[in-house]
Design goal:
2 copies of one chain form a homodimer.
Chain A (H helix, E strand, L loop, with lengths): L20 E8 L3 E7 L5 E8 L4 H15 L3 E9 L2 E3 L4 E5 L4 E4 L1 H6 L7 E5 H13 L7 E6 L3 E7 L2 E3 L35 H13 L5 H5 L9 H9 L3 H25 L3 E5 L6 H15 L2 H4 L3 E4 L4 H9 L6
Parallel strand pairs in A: 1-4, 4-8, 9-12, 12-13
Antiparallel strand pairs in A: 1-2, 2-3, 5-6, 6-7, 9-10, 10-11
Helix pairs in contact in A: 3-10, 4-7, 6-7, 7-8
Chain lengths: 329, 329
């Protein structure tokens, strides 16, 4: 066994290397690349993270090396998730805002070094939705929306039991639906986009704005007046310690999320909405406002049918891995 | 040939009765019931309309009688479209706001008298979307939204080449997505619903409101000061005769339609949007504002991919008829 293979958490349970069919999921983020060995049901058996190099060449080399390390496992396929516009069929990453990459023939370039391995490329929000469908819903629903709360808000959609990609593969851009038609200008050109009112950027901007308006909050002390250091994590910490302003900002985000979600569930009538993005710690601050808003704004027979779930699983890698199960890709 | 069979428009073309496979579509509206004999491609071969009776019993009797009249044609199935909440699998109409009917076991009750005929029941907006997919898009796109402009705004959705119904069969309630979060109260309980800003009710209310604010319009004269007589058709007529207020009201509706449509196409990334509801006469008044708004608000790569089509076909009956082609129903 090569020394750089990550050890299985519970190798005995799986009968040692190579006895069980597994899938490798890779999520290329702006900061880290996350690798996860996933079983056919979407359970993570083993995982590791490495920092994301800046240059494409370096990242591609690293992917090949790391994938090779996982080969002693019986891997049926490798799924790669990345933020940005991808051509899923051709394995091309057209553009990634996080990584500043353009037109990378990702699958083609890696496959050269790993010729007999099935590989797929997918947008990270789509991959997360597929992960939610498999590992959260356990395929027991047919229609599901997976919302990723990060800097802004992304989403992936599973309909009739299939990942729904749309005409360009960009379906799910919930962050650029209009929340307030006469609202703030968005870099995309529109006014009042959801992303201006939901996500990490919104939380931080709201807090900083309130501090500048001389509102009291313990966050000022927590960052020793260096407002650039305010993060969603610190806002949650302050909210947990009873800070009213921090709590209000989370509530106001919950309300905004409720408005757009009520619209989307009235329109798509899904059975489940899965939230992801490491937000369960702030649940008690945004969830009541979110639920109250949905109750006010969505049809009773529709909202009663939809289950809201907050998941802490790494749905992007799980979904990417399991996308290789589908033979039609 | 029984005397009450509607004569074929071009019987010779189709080789006489019974030579060609056809489908019967029925659209039960609040005022009329529309019957249409449809070929497998969605062309209407023959059609008739009868007034809608008030009582369920009367309507069911009438349906049986009229369907029997069509039987000499080689009909493979009968599809019935109706506004309201339906259980498509069981053929039950749970509730129809137009007809004030509740829990009508429609297919079961008609089938008793027509035992060997395949029948399906579908919500009218879903049926129209299926009609648009077959008779407008000719199945050349996979993802399509069909918008029905009437009193308010309805929609049906075809995704991955399938009619998308959602968890309760109510998917497509675009009229109750939120357009202005702090806007007008809607009977559904929400504030700022799309239906308050788009559709016949909106047009008429806007005009009446402006007249009460002493704005000049030829519509006042056209209805001899009886403002209750103002209709969307009259507003279009006035707009065609150069009336500025009538033109502005259509434009403002075009802008509202553009806002919600930009949101929906950013979210679902469809290949086609089909408008129906007898609005092509007003096209020149609302379409420029609609297109300009979409250009401002939707992603360029998404809006360039989507084709907007205004159709004057009776998509509800066509879609209802063709839904019986699917063997899985």
């Amino acid at each position: 066994m090569p020394t750089n293979i990550p050890a299985l958490k519970s190798e005995a349970l799986y009968g040692g290397l190579g006895k069980l069919t597994m899938y490798l999921g890779i999520d290329i983020g702006g900061t880290n690349i996350h690798f996860a060995l996933v079983d056919r049901k979407g359970e993570i058996i083993n995982e590791k993270s490495v920092p994301t190099a800046k240059k494409v060449e370096k990242v591609l080399q690293l992917l090949v090396t790391e994938i090779k390390n996982f080969l002693p496992y019986r891997i049926k396929g490798v799924g790669i998730a990345v933020a940005g516009l991808v051509n899923q069929k051709k394995g091309i990453l057209y553009f990634s805002p996080n990584l500043s990459w353009k037109n990378v023939y990702l699958i083609q370039r890696i496959s050269k070094y790993l010729p007999n391995l099935k590989m797929v490329l997918e947008n990270d929000a789509n991959a997360a939705a597929w992960g939610a469908y498999n590992a959260v819903a356990k395929k027991k629903v047919k229609n599901l929306i997976c919302l990723t709360l990060g800097t802004g808000l992304g989403s992936g959609i599973v309909l009739n039991g299939e990942l729904y990609r749309g005409a360009n593969g960009t379906a799910g851009e919930i962050g650029h639906m209009t929340l307030y038609p006469d609202g703030l200008r968005c870099p995309c050109g529109n006014y009042g986009c959801v992303e201006r009112y939901i996500g990490a950027n919104y939380l931080v901007k709201q807090v900083v704005g309130q501090i500048r308006r001389k509102e009291h909050t313990m966050l000022t002390g927590m960052v020793v007046n260096d407002l650039k250091k305010i993060t969603p994590e610190l806002i949650t910490e302050a909210a947990n310690r009873g800070d009213k302003l921090a709590q209000q900002v989370w509530q106001s985000m919950g309300k905004n999320l409720g408005i757009i979600l009520a619209s989307v569930i009235n329109f798509l009538n899904p059975e489940m909405v899965v939230f992801t993005g490491g937000i369960s710690g702030a649940k008690k601050f945004f969830l009541p406002a979110l639920e109250e808003t949905i109750k006010k704004r969505a049809f009773p027979e529709i909202r009663k049918k939809v289950k809201l779930v907050i998941s802490e699983k790494s749905l992007g890698v799980i979904g990417a891995a399991l996308l290789t199960q589908n033979t039609d890709i």
